[in-house]
Recover the amino acids of this structure.
């Protein structure tokens, strides 16, 4: 698979994840509770976000530097663990009685979920910071991505309305970043020189 194909695949994955979690968050905010559709979207969409992360790093790795490489590695790991938590929460925990869930969270699962939250949050903030240090993508997109995903990393600690809003914010940020990756996937020169993306601090194509 060449770089352009990888970027397009990652961008498509980011669009899927962003649209899915934004739709799920907006629906749950409007209804005030989960439904089967939002559980399916939230539980099944998160792994696609990993594809976007890989594509963004593949496009910008030179500009992101060593700090960005470290941040990418941490968020990649955290994203993987968080995908498992999201799957478990939406396809398993929601079908258990509250006392059973409480008992479960008093055991080793509590520490596993806590460790996942710490790794995922650390990676998200670090990678978001790395993006903000460059002028290769819109700062607002980086902020939306970072703030939204940070709220999701703390899903077990924050009130439901905050987490649902985080889904929308993260979704918008991911869609924005995915569109930038897609628009630059066919630009061989841009892939070789990330500073020449179709975005500039003063202009965003499309």
């Amino acid at each position: 698979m060449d770089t352009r194909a990888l970027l397009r695949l990652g961008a498509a994955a980011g669009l899927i994840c962003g649209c899915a979690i934004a739709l799920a968050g907006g629906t749950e905010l409007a209804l005030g509770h989960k439904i089967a559709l939002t559980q399916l979207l939230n539980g099944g969409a998160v792994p696609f976000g990993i594809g976007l992360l890989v594509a963004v790093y593949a496009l910008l790795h030179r500009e992101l530097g060593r700090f960005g490489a470290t941040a990418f590695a941490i968020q990649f790991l955290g994203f993987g663990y968080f995908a498992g938590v999201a799957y478990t929460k939406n396809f398993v925990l929601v079908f258990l009685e509250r006392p059973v869930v409480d008992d479960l969270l008093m055991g080793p699962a509590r520490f596993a979920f806590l460790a996942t939250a710490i790794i995922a949050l650390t990676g998200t903030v670090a990678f978001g910071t790395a993006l903000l240090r460059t002028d290769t993508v819109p700062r607002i997109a980086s902020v939306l991505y970072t703030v939204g995903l940070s709220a999701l990393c703390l899903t077990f600690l924050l009130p439901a309305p905050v987490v649902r809003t985080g889904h929308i914010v993260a979704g918008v940020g991911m869609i924005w970043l995915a569109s930038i990756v897609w628009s630059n996937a066919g630009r061989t020169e841009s892939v070789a020189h990330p500073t020449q993306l179709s975005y500039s601090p003063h202009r965003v194509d499309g």
Observations:
- Confidence is low (pLDDT under 50) at residues 188-196, 200-206.
- The helical segments are 3-31, 36-91, 98-105, 108-132, 139-153, 160-185, 188-192.
- Residues 64 and 130 are 6 Å apart (CA to CA).
- The two ends are 27 Å apart (CA to CA).
